[in-house]
Write a structure and sequence with these properties.
The protein has helices spanning 36-47, 79-91, 149-168, 183-188, 203-206, 208-220, 243-254, 282-291, 305-313, 324-328, 332-342, 354-357; strands spanning 8-10, 13-15, 19-21, 52-59, 71-72, 95-101, 130-131, 145-146, 173-178, 227-232, 260-264, 295-299, 319-322. 33% of the residues lie in helices and 16% in strands. α1 packs parallel to α2, α3 packs parallel to α6 (208-220) and α7 (243-254) packs across α8. The chain has a single domain, classed as TIM Barrel, CATH 3.20.20. The chain binds flavin mononucleotide.
């Protein structure tokens, strides 16, 4: 089995190591465009040695933004700011991916640090939202309009057009956001999707939107570029989306060209008790990898070098995604490599940028 600092190949993308920056919304874009903030924030993790930088949830339609300050890729003029990010990330030896997202019924909300929380009202720049049904996520959020077949087709096209723009922006890979109770997960989860047409009902109907999105995005990307998928591998509710569903989904979607399944969990409905603990979602990545035979990513409360390295060495996942640990320490990967080397894990060269590496030789 490889270790954390062995390269990972996905189609033609080569990741220098298996540490990835997990997508994390920073709610800091003006009109969806990436600017200096995104360049420095994401660039710092590239100079900090990660193998892959996954850009935060980036809306494929304006109405699919979680907040008015989300990144977006629904217009051509949003490509240039993203290209600055991909150029810089590549110059530092890291690969880049963008997470394409649609918030569905969780759209049009205030960002987390706003004085008011919940739905953004029309007069404050909010907008009508859509979902699989007209049921709101909570009384504090907007009641969505249920998408009809034309509306669903528009969403699928928006994902494909966004993928083409992501390719033009120079991303090495694209990740479809099908987790955390956003639009695609709203369709997947039986707790939310109570439709009785071809996009609801059993597993096949509920996963149809995602299959259509995967096909359309795959067709919009060059063969050489990998397609990643983030799922909520469990709703953590009896009768909700389950790990078994995830294994089945991963196998089917690998056949449609998904190269890696990034296994998160939760978010479909409010008030669920999630057993958060170190590495608590790793078993999902392990099951997807072993039972579906698909490359997987592990995420969630992974904080130490030894923990991350063991996940890869023990064959539980191909890639380890870090969120808060990388916000706390942009140079986490460099520090992890030093630590693993000191612990006798072999010749692990800390991925310093050239400008600093010679200082610490
Ligand atoms: C500030 C913040 C923003 C996040 N935004 C996203 C996002 O845009 N897309 C996503 O899939 N997950 C998002 N997440 C979840 C993280 O990607 C990650 O799965 C989660 O934080 C668990 O990993 P950790 O324990 O290493 O932080 C976010 C998490 C944080 C802390």
């Amino acid at each position: 089995m490889p270790h954390l600092f062995e390269p990972l190949r996905l189609r033609d993308a080569r990741l220098r190591n298996r540490v990835a920056m997990s997508p994390m919304c920073t709610y800091s874009a003006e009109d969806g465009r990436a600017d200096d903030w995104h360049l420095v924030h994401l660039g710092a993790r590239a100079t900090g040695g990660v193998g892959l930088v996954v850009v935060e949830a980036t809306a494929v339609e304006a109405r699919g933004r979680i907040s008015p300050s989300d990144l977006g890729v629904w217009r051509d003029d949003q490509v240039d700011g993203l290209r600055r990010v991909t150029d810089f990330v590549r110059s530092q030896g890291a690969a880049s991916a963008v997470q394409l997202a649609h918030a569905g019924r969780k759209a049009s909300t205030h960002r987390p640090w706003a004085p008011r929380q919940g739905a953004v009202a029309d007069e404050d720049g909010g907008w009508p939202v859509v979902g699989p049904t007209s049921e709101p996520f909570s009384p504090r959020l907007r009641a969505p309009t249920a998408l009809d077949e034309d509306g669903i087709a528009r969403v699928v096209t928006a994902f494909a057009d966004a993928a083409a723009r992501a390719d033009a922006a120079g991303f090495d890979a694209v990740e479809i956001h099908a987790a955390h109770g956003y639009l695609i997960h709203q369709f997947l989860s039986p707790l939310v999707n109570t439709r009785d047409d071809g996009y609801g009902g059993g597993f096949e109907g509920r996963s149809r939107l995602l299959r259509e999105v995967v096909r359309a995005v795959r067709a919009a990307l060059p063969e050489a570029k990998p397609l990643l998928l983030r799922i909520s591998a469990s709703d953590w509710v009896e009768g909700g989306w389950s790990a078994e569903d995830s294994v089945r989904l991963a196998g089917e979607l690998a056949g449609l060209g998904v190269d890696l399944v990034d296994c998160s969990s939760g978010g479909a409905v409010a008030g669920v008790k999630v057993p958060v603990a170190p590495g608590y979602q790793v078993p999902f990545a392990e099951r997807v990898r072993r039972e579906a035979g698909v490359a997987s990513g592990a995420v969630g409360r992974i904080t130490t070098a030894a923990q991350a390295d063991a996940i890869v060495r023990e064959g539980k996942a191909d890639l380890v995604l870090l969120g808060k640990a990388l916000l706390d320490d942009p140079q986490w990967a460099i520090h992890a490599a030093r630590e693993l080397r000191a612990a006798g894990a072999g010749e692990v060269a800390p991925p310093w940028p050239t400008q600093y590496g010679w200082v610490f030789r």
